[in-house]
Amino acid sequence: MAPLRLHIAGNRFRDPHNREITLHGINVAGDTKYPAHPPVPSHEKEHFFEGDTVSFVDRPFPLDEAPIHFARLKRWGYNCIRYLFTWEALEHAGPGKYDEDFCRHTVEVLRVAKRYGFHVFMDPHQDVWSRFTGGSGAPMWTIYACGLDPKEFAVTEASLVQNTWPDPADFPKMVWATNYQRIACQTIFTMFFAGKEFAPKCVIDDKNIQDYLQDHFIAACAHLARRIHEAGDLHGETVIGYESVNEPNNGFVGHPDLANIPKNQNLRKYTCPTGFQAMLTGSGRAVEMDTYAFGTFGPYKSGTHLVDPKGHTAWLDPASWDDTKYGWKRADSWKLGTDIWAQHGVWNPKTDELLKPQYFLQHPQTGETMDTEFFLNNNFLYYYRKYKTAIRNIWPEAIMLMQPQPFEIPPDIKGTADDDPNMVFASHFYDGITLITKKWNKLWNVDVLGVLRGRYLSPAFALKIGEGAIRRCFRDQLDEIRKEGEEHMGEHPLIFTEIGIPYDMDDAYAYRTGDYSSQAAAIDANFFAVEGSGAAGLTWWLYTVENSHRWGDNWNGEDLSIYCREDRALPPPRADLTASTYYKDEDAESDASAQQKKNPNPSYSMSRSTTTSSSTTSPTQQQQANPPGYRAAQSYIRPIPPTPTAPCSRTAST
């Protein structure tokens, strides 16, 4: 069999025979966001703060189950895997302490993916920094390194974390993403990308906190890349490249006024502190702040709420904390127990007066305005170059997938040394209205990208009425993202490495009825958009092994997985081929048996026709016994159409 290696030719992928390849991929898997041993999904309180001793071996799934999942995904038409892993999985025990068992497990799972012919790229995944700040990604010790105490985040609202919510089942929908505007994430991301500019006093082991965090993160990713390279049969044949980091965030960098909520802060839900209010509550002060809810036309102010930490602070108490726990030495200039922004003169903790409301808007040395454009072209690129160098030192032929902040104009690298011919522009797209409301509104939607780019005098003019207009609006937004990439980054393939929809729409109506028509319409609209945008492919969000109707993806109430054991399995493609003869899916019968016990209603069971021959069961009878639906699979199991610019079957001239 010829190698599956891909190479880049302009803005397309080609195989060793110079045929164009469109990447039709899936993110594997949502389960990687939390440990396997012990299993600590975001609704589980027990074992949550045992971050140093967890294990991510068996993520994304146990090795003996890998053939089941890869066979299923291959049968469903996927040819590409965005393989999720987290920094925490690699280095949870402490700085420089790598989990070799996890590395070995990853190599063996990738070898199974190779057997099924997948193209794989590796995604160092994070959401709002870490599980301990309400998301996934970084190990717990990084939060301590930043001088913060994650056990005090709940009372101070430094982060809203489902694991520490009074009743995790009542955790507000989509509120996890608001952690990007709360003190823990704002501080840590500022340190990670701009610590040398804004937190020069924060030095640990003779390094500024920026380089300390970046160097450890990059070294951990490089360690895994080295283990994959040492395997000898994965790089180039199966693993095609490495993504830079999932959804980088600028933290406080570019914040226009700490006394006010920025106008471009579009996600407002639950309590919405200003930057300064977040500093105050993080330091134990009681603050009455605005609350927001999401209505028909977006977020609206719903009232106010008093956040009273009762003297608790989100900063480490030097009386009870010992830095020797992780073996690092903090510089004398960094005083534990006090907000670091107060230490840098942003506000006065004696009078609670804001002194520098625009501290993060201007570069401390040059005076340049540090807006999002500056951040991406300087702070983000500084990190990206270090990451790329580390990966390419191990595997010089690696395809690098640069992922700037979603919905932002990418860095201006066209024609520069960063305009790497072996690079991909990785972007994300979500229909925010559907994601937040968990409803498919076929009556109206909004041209979000157009609003962000200032193309409308009023957001009201950005309304798109009717399902046809909504579909075209999605397509046009994705096409514009592609054009912005070409204008600012040069000619590179564009992959939407995340795009997806919630399955628990309409208060989980489909789970009660088997009617997935809303989900199918939303999925089809998104695929229509990608297919019409000129992108070189996508990796759909998401495949989650342990998805359930009650807890979704087991992470912050999200439920975006295309697969759930509680839904019907796909029937064989022809009446004369049973599922067992068409592909190896050893869990088919066990899934069906388990589901039959949970749900005896045969109309919505997972039973398959694995023993009945075509002589006794016609295709019509099969469809009646197991009617179409299967969690809206008719919309995502689809042929890959020719791209608008070049048919997939065309061979390039040589």
TrEMBL record:
<dbReference type="InterPro" id="IPR001547">
    <property type="entry name" value="Glyco_hydro_5"/>
</dbReference>
<dbReference type="GO" id="GO:1904462">
    <property type="term" value="P:ergosteryl 3-beta-D-glucoside catabolic process"/>
</dbReference>
<dbReference type="InterPro" id="IPR017853">
    <property type="entry name" value="GH"/>
</dbReference>
<protein>
    <recommendedName>
        <fullName>Glycoside hydrolase family 5 domain-containing protein</fullName>
    </recommendedName>
</protein>
<feature type="compositionally biased region" description="Low complexity">
    <location>
        <begin position="603"/>
        <end position="624"/>
    </location>
</feature>
<feature type="domain" description="Glycoside hydrolase family 5">
    <location>
        <begin position="71"/>
        <end position="129"/>
    </location>
</feature>
<feature type="region of interest" description="Disordered">
    <location>
        <begin position="584"/>
        <end position="654"/>
    </location>
</feature>
<keyword id="KW-0378">Hydrolase</keyword>
<dbReference type="GO" id="GO:0050295">
    <property type="term" value="F:steryl-beta-glucosidase activity"/>
</dbReference>
<dbReference type="Pfam" id="PF00150">
    <property type="entry name" value="Cellulase"/>
</dbReference>
<dbReference type="GO" id="GO:0000272">
    <property type="term" value="P:polysaccharide catabolic process"/>
</dbReference>
<keyword id="KW-0326">Glycosidase</keyword>
<feature type="compositionally biased region" description="Polar residues">
    <location>
        <begin position="592"/>
        <end position="602"/>
    </location>
</feature>
<dbReference type="InterPro" id="IPR052066">
    <property type="entry name" value="Glycosphingolipid_Hydrolases"/>
</dbReference>
<comment type="similarity">
    <text>Belongs to the glycosyl hydrolase 5 (cellulase A) family.</text>
</comment>
